[in-house]
């Protein structure tokens, strides 16, 4: 079996040049047994006369086939796939569940110490925004703690508990994050 990847040597244009015709006759004579046959695949070379792209696209059988395919697809989609309108749910969005899910997501990516430190910083920042502290006062400045302990609505025990939570956070020791959040919420409510 002889396979030639390039058939250009034996095309009508090149068969007469050089020794291409002699090469072809030698290959045939060498490989053909009595009763053998030769197969030329000249369709890939564009030498066949029965393929005409314009005739192919103008053939009404192609258009009928495409029409049938589209019709069958529509029957499938519209017939077997029911178009139902889902009834509106009467339930309102559960805000508590959303907040809980968001909190659990954030709790998995933020350490308790970082969250506690941010809660304290936000608390002192809110006091600065309301004008109770100077804008350049750091969160752990003595002026902030002095101002907080001078408030009549805030008990000494609450200030001590808040200070202890801050110390534990700064030293990397365990503390109750929920208690810290609740304590600051209570303090904010008392100072409004």
Overview of the molecule:
The chain has 192 residues and is mainly α. Among the domains are: 1-50, no CATH class; 108-191, no CATH class. The termini are far apart. It contains 8 helices and no strands. The mean pLDDT is 79. The protein is elongated, with a radius of gyration of 44 Å. It has helices at 20-31, 53-58, 60-80, 95-109, 112-129, 142-149, 156-171, 177-191.
| Distance between the amino and carboxyl termini | 98 Å
Helical residues, percent: 55-70%
Mean pLDDT: 79
Query: Quick one: biggest sheet?
Result: none
Shape descriptor reads elongated
Q: Are there runs of 5+ residues with pLDDT below 50, and where?
A: none
Written as H for each helix and E for each strand, in order along the chain, the element string is HHHHHHHH
Oligomeric state of the chains in view: single chain
Return the structural class: mainly alpha
Number of helices: 8
Query: Roughly how many Å is the radius of gyration?
Result: 44 Å
Strand content: under 5%
Number of strands: 0
Task: Itemize the secondary structure elements and their pairings.
Blueprint: H1 20-31, H2 53-58, H3 60-80, H4 95-109, H5 112-129, H6 142-149, H7 156-171, H8 177-191
Helix pairs in contact: 5-7, 5-8
Short description:
The protein is mainly α and 192 residues long. It contains eight helices and no strands.
Keywords:
mainly alpha; 58% helix; 192 residues
């Amino acid at each position: 079996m002889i396979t030639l990847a390039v058939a250009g040597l034996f095309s009508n244009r090149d068969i007469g040049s050089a020794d291409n015709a002699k090469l072809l006759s030698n290959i045939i004579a060498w490989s053909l047994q009595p009763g053998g046959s030769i197969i030329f695949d000249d369709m890939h070379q564009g030498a066949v006369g029965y393929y005409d792209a314009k005739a192919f696209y103008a053939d009404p059988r192609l258009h009928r086939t495409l029409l049938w395919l589209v019709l069958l697809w529509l029957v499938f989609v519209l017939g077997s796939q029911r178009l139902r309108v889902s009834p509106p749910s009467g339930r309102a969005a559960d805000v508590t569940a959303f907040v809980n899910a968001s909190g659990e997501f954030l709790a998995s990516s933020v350490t308790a110490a970082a969250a506690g430190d941010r809660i304290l910083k936000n608390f002192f920042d809110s006091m600065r925004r309301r004008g109770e502290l100077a804008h350049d006062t750091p969160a752990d400045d003595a002026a902030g703690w002095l101002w907080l302990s001078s408030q009549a609505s805030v008990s000494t025990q609450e200030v001590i508990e808040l200070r202890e939570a801050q110390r534990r956070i700064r030293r990397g020791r365990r503390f109750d994050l929920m208690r810290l959040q609740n304590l600051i919420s209570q303090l904010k409510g008392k100072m409004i």
